[in-house]
Amino acid sequence: MNFASDNAYGASAEILAVLIKASEGAVASYGDDPITARVQERLAKIFARDLRSFPVATGTAANSLILATLCPPYGAVFCHAESHIAVDECAAPEFFSGGAKLVLLEGDGAKITPAIIEAVLPNFQRGVHSPKPSVVSITQATELGTLYTPHEIRAIADCAHKNGMMLHMDGARFANALASLECEAADITWRAGVDALSFGATKNGALCAEAAIFFDPAMAKDFEYRRKKGGHLLSKMRFISAQLDGYLEDDRWLKTARYANALAKKLSVGLLQINGAELAQKVQANEIFVWLPDASIKRLRKAGAKFYDWMPPQDGRTMIRLVTSFATPEADVAKLLEIAKS
Amino acid sequence: MNFASDNAYGASAEILAVLIKASEGAVASYGDDPITARVQERLAKIFARDLRSFPVATGTAANSLILATLCPPYGAVFCHAESHIAVDECAAPEFFSGGAKLVLLEGDGAKITPAIIEAVLPNFQRGVHSPKPSVVSITQATELGTLYTPHEIRAIADCAHKNGMMLHMDGARFANALASLECEAADITWRAGVDALSFGATKNGALCAEAAIFFDPAMAKDFEYRRKKGGHLLSKMRFISAQLDGYLEDDRWLKTARYANALAKKLSVGLLQINGAELAQKVQANEIFVWLPDASIKRLRKAGAKFYDWMPPQDGRTMIRLVTSFATPEADVAKLLEIAKS
Amino acid sequence: MNFASDNAYGASAEILAVLIKASEGAVASYGDDPITARVQERLAKIFARDLRSFPVATGTAANSLILATLCPPYGAVFCHAESHIAVDECAAPEFFSGGAKLVLLEGDGAKITPAIIEAVLPNFQRGVHSPKPSVVSITQATELGTLYTPHEIRAIADCAHKNGMMLHMDGARFANALASLECEAADITWRAGVDALSFGATKNGALCAEAAIFFDPAMAKDFEYRRKKGGHLLSKMRFISAQLDGYLEDDRWLKTARYANALAKKLSVGLLQINGAELAQKVQANEIFVWLPDASIKRLRKAGAKFYDWMPPQDGRTMIRLVTSFATPEADVAKLLEIAKS
Amino acid sequence: MNFASDNAYGASAEILAVLIKASEGAVASYGDDPITARVQERLAKIFARDLRSFPVATGTAANSLILATLCPPYGAVFCHAESHIAVDECAAPEFFSGGAKLVLLEGDGAKITPAIIEAVLPNFQRGVHSPKPSVVSITQATELGTLYTPHEIRAIADCAHKNGMMLHMDGARFANALASLECEAADITWRAGVDALSFGATKNGALCAEAAIFFDPAMAKDFEYRRKKGGHLLSKMRFISAQLDGYLEDDRWLKTARYANALAKKLSVGLLQINGAELAQKVQANEIFVWLPDASIKRLRKAGAKFYDWMPPQDGRTMIRLVTSFATPEADVAKLLEIAKS
User: Chain A contacts of D224, Cβ < 8 Å?
Assistant: First the structure.
């Protein structure tokens, strides 16, 4: 019963099969291979427009390299105070950008709004004493498992662009978001004003593969140099690309995301039957933030279930995080519910 | 007939098999898994001492993160002018170190010596106007396919340490070097004074796996933070570690290196039977730098053989580079020789 | 009537006189001159211990270079959310450190406490995902004109050191603080656990001179290289040093600070006689943060008085900042009071 | 007898007088003062075009901040192997740019040519493996006291621009160069294709003042932020600007440069009368590189004359550097000649 993270499980059998096959023969290295080209074509089709995509091995690489491309060293990135780039990447964006500032915003459900951005902006418009507002970064699905609607993203994008900033989306769980929103990929990205996307695959069945996507190809050259300089251009690039190839093939990415989302839904519904259980956040993707009675939690820990405490105990309850993934066994959900309730 | 690089081929079947197996089950992420621990144990045994090893996905990451650990922003790294860190990594060491200077040294066979280092040192001992000499970096096997003997390394290490510098070894082709020298791994590393090693696997059968090795565990903490901050800590770390695990198991890494070396030897011996052929460098590992008549080269190109011109044509001959690998078919060597000679 | 900042006025006649005199003759450049040596001696005497001091031309240089010396690229600097390093230096510390994170703390009167630090620390003790807590930085006098007592500093230092962090003090207004506290310089620095000090002179009568001071000489070498690499080592260093020489000579620095403090006191006492006037902060040095009726403010603006609004108008009052300096004419204080009251 | 450097003397009386006067009254800080504006007007007039100028306190700041503005982190700066940016600034350009590479070129008299640039360029046109050629930097007068003619600069600029690079000029001794060439300032800068200039004043009579000049105002905003972030924006900016103001007033800068140049000429002519004396470089500005008999050198050292040995002794002679400045006493030249000859 591992609900600690969607990176606790390995890779999907289908992606592994594509990876094995990709190993055959000799091809050009550093991304000049047919698989890497095919991935870009697949993504262009999925996003319904010309774009440039760059495979990398980690989400931190995708995020940081994109932010460094969009934000000068003297710039500021506006993001939620709980965002992954703010609290889980050891200040990698600051490093890759050459010292840019992350401006931490508060907002319900780990989401930000134009009003929140505009309330802070004046502090950064006093000339060179403050870094220049350059990028807004949002996470979809958010770090609290919530979602931005196309309309909300459009409003943020308009606010960003009006103020001379670009819009980045951290899509480590983009598949879960899209599967839940039931719209097109374009609707929550470029059509809503997103300039660049960290398109995640690792959490949803790949071994180590993300794609940095620019909807404006003009930004690509800068990124390519930065990726190389950051040590993130793989010589045998086909092995990252093959993961993305297998991920995108036959809508596999959406199928696995739907599976994880459905488990999360089932799990949350089940947990709410427990006396004293209460959702801390809406369950919109594959993460559950829930207050549970300490007795339930104690039983779960004793049974070896893995998950994180998210807030310290309070009045006999603790807020925990449970994450489902493409590989979480359905039986584990049933088992966890049984133990938690008993 | 692909002799362009040892990264042109995919991965070995054995390593892929270990990788597939590693995908099973849920484990702790970010390197707290049993496979990552096992790799460190294997390396400690191979190098016959306690050490700390950190898997990363690229050689540039291993080199740059180690150099940043050993060299302050105001430091200088002494290396050969043709070394990979100097000419093939888009100045990644300068980026990761925060602006350190690479001091480019000339030396036969892409090798440097204490005398070469000492000739340049006085330029960097004028106080703060010059960066502080902090690291010497050598490549084993070198970028020209030559080798450092244990004795030569010891002399460089003594020179470095005496002058307050550390010694780094870029071992992208460490296996080829070791297989050729027929000594112990320790003899050309810590026993000879090497402080840190980029231990390559990618060119010799892995998909994307190198280990950054510190023979002094005290340097490990700094490296761990830098790896994370550089976006080089994989969430599903087991997938990089599994490659190293399969690589090291049963001396597989030395077997594949011996195979590649033997092919290179065979190829070079065959080529020298051509009228006008001449080795530009001793063939000590899996790379051949050879002057061939332009007629031979033309025939090879026409037949689709892949390799790099290394020097422009001169008097009817061109210097080319041929690289063999764990996966180069023996038949390709025979075929290339036949075409080159005919 | 310029109360906008203590950098609005020029330099004191005495310091200018020392500067002129320092121009005579030929001396060694880059700090190997007798004036620079004398400044270090003066500081050692004032602080009653061996120390290393490095003149630089700006406070941002002193702060950033010290922080980069104390904090690794993967480190975190804990400071008040309103501190100069956090909001007035365009993220210079992030740049000089190579991407360190500033952790912004809230606290009354722009001051932090051990409790505030310890409340946040656990977020940064989850391994490499967060930057490593490395430095606590406090400002004396603070950006709101308040002061830390020796006892308060000691408590912060103990908290910092216990948690593996160093303590930096931004002393842009150190003279004003010391003059007000009526203790010894050592009492609010090394004796209270401060590791490094940005010792300001510019705001208190110099043209452009600060000293970066390390109470542990072992840190000096690193700093010297960083200063040079940051372009902050002046060839004709004597001209910065001479300012500090003239500043420290005959307790001049404390006299001018006392003058500015006394004017601030007088001004604040006078302002409180206005109906509706209210201090937002205690006036402990040379800055006044005061709520004044909008009618008073309107009259002052009309009369050409220069000062900053610090908070937007609220219920017919606005919070403004008034700063006095070594050169503020006493008559201006009287005049401002008269206009504000009338 | 100090001929060690043109930074060995203090400041000119006239510049000091302007500085003193600038101290009067309260003005806006951070460069929004009338003196800073006037300096830009003076420079625009001298260079006969609209431009943007930014005072800074050191030449390393001017060079590094300009290079960081013109060169991305993944770029390369082509410069002479003996240039100040390459060997005297502790790799400051690498730091400010975020890791750019300086490509060191050899050329007679510390000068480079289009042919030298073009010979190296192909090494940097292999895609992202090498940094992107972004800037050519030349020094006027060079570090060996030689000069580029307008025609030579034009040729370099054309070569740079044709290859997508910008042209920077390090003008630490720009006045000496211009005074010697007897052309207009525009002829050796923007009219010849120079994009940005480090305009030096410190070596020629100022205390600590250089101006970073962009002939294309569009680059100014980026520079302003970088200057602040680098700690190089002075709060009491008027004090740097006043130096430049006094420097440029009444052609003072050219008068002092002519004085220094004339002394250098006189000195070199005198030295050549010594048996065995030989110029190592043409004397075109205020620096002399000359081989002198060791006996002469010994007498000079004994008499307390200060200068640098530039090359180790060879066949009874040593190459030394002698530098004259605005403040070198004429009598010292006569005295040095007398001692050297006797």
Answer: 128
Q: What integer pLDDT is reported at residue D212 of this predicted model?
A: 98
pLDDT at position D135 is 98
- Residue where the block lists tokens 């289009």: D114
Q: Which chains touch D (3 or more CB pairs under 8 A)?
A: A, B, C
User: A36, A128, A130, A237: which to substitute to probe chain D, counting the most D Cβ within 10 Å?
Assistant: A128
Identify whether the C-beta of residue C250 lies closer than 8 Å to the C-beta of residue C269: no
Q: What is the pLDDT of residue A342?
A: 83
CA distance C99 to C117: 21
> Which stretches of chain B score pLDDT less than 70?
none
Q: In what order do the strands lie in the sheet with A52-56?
A: A52-56, A210-214, A196-200, A166-171, A132-139, A75-80, A101-105
| Residues of chain D positioned with their CB less than 8 A from the CB of B90 | 74, 128-131
CA distances from D243 to D14, D33, D201 (A): 9, 14, 8
Please give the domain boundaries of chain C with CATH numbers for all domains: 13-250 (3.40.640.10), 253-341 (3.90.1150.10)
Judge: D232–C96 Cβ closer than 8 Å, yes or no: no
Report yes or no: B156 and B138 within 8 Å, Cβ to Cβ.
Answer: yes
Name the closest residue on chain D to residue A131, using Cα atoms.
D225
Give yes or no for a contact between A84 and A45, defined as CB atoms under 8 angstroms apart: no
> What is the radius of gyration, based on Cα positions, of chain D?
20
Cβ contact (<8 Å) for B207 and A96?
no
> What's residue B126's pLDDT?
86
- Read off the DSSP letter of residue A96: H
Q: List the single best residue of A60, A90, A130 to mutate versus C (max C Cβ within 10 A).
A: A90
pLDDT of residue D133: 98
Can you give the pLDDT at residue A38?
Answer: 98
The mean of the pLDDT values for chain A is 97
Question: To the nearest whole angstrom, how far is the Cα of D46 from the nearest Cα of chain C?
Answer: 26
Q: Give the span between the Cα atoms of D209 and D240, in whole angstroms.
A: 6
Helix, strand, coil percentages (3-state) for chain C, rounded to 5, are 45, 20, 35
Q: How close D72 gets to chain B, by Cα (Å)?
A: 12
Query: Does the global pTM surpass 0.90?
Result: yes
ipTM for this prediction: 0.97
Q: What is the pLDDT of residues A60-78, one digit of tens each?
A: 999 999 999 999 999 999 9
Residue D342 has pLDDT above 90, yes or no: no
Q: Identify whether the C-beta of residue D189 lies closer than 8 Å to the C-beta of residue D47.
A: yes
Q: B231: which residues sit within 8 A by CB, 6+ positions away?
A: A56, A58, A60, A61, A63, A64, A65, A89, A92, A96, A230, A232
Count of other CB atoms within 10 angstroms of residue B3: 27
Integer CA distances (angstroms), B303 to A25, B297, B299, B307, D291, in order: 17, 10, 6, 12, 61
H helices of chain B, where?
13-22, 34-46, 59-70, 84-87, 92-97, 114-120, 150-162, 174-181, 220-229, 238-248, 252-271, 294-302, 330-341
Binding partners of C (≥3 Cβ pairs within 8 A): A, B, D
Question: For residue C126, is pLDDT > 90?
Answer: no
Instruction: Return the pLDDT at B100.
Output: 98
pLDDT at D126: 86
Residues A155-182 have pLDDT tens digits of 999 999 999 999 999 999 999 999 999 8
- Give the DSSP H/E element, type plus range, for residue C274: none
Which residues of chain D neighbour A227 with C-beta distances below 8 Å? 128
Cross-sheet strand order for the sheet of B308-314: B278-279, B287-293, B317-323, B308-314
Between chains, do C129 and B229 touch, taking CB under 8 Å as contact?
A: no
Q: Render pLDDT for C178-230 as a digit per residue (tens, 0 to 9).
A: 999 989 999 999 999 999 999 999 999 999 999 999 999 998 889 999 999 99
C342 pLDDT more than 90: no
Closest-CA distance, B77 to chain C, in angstroms, reads: 16
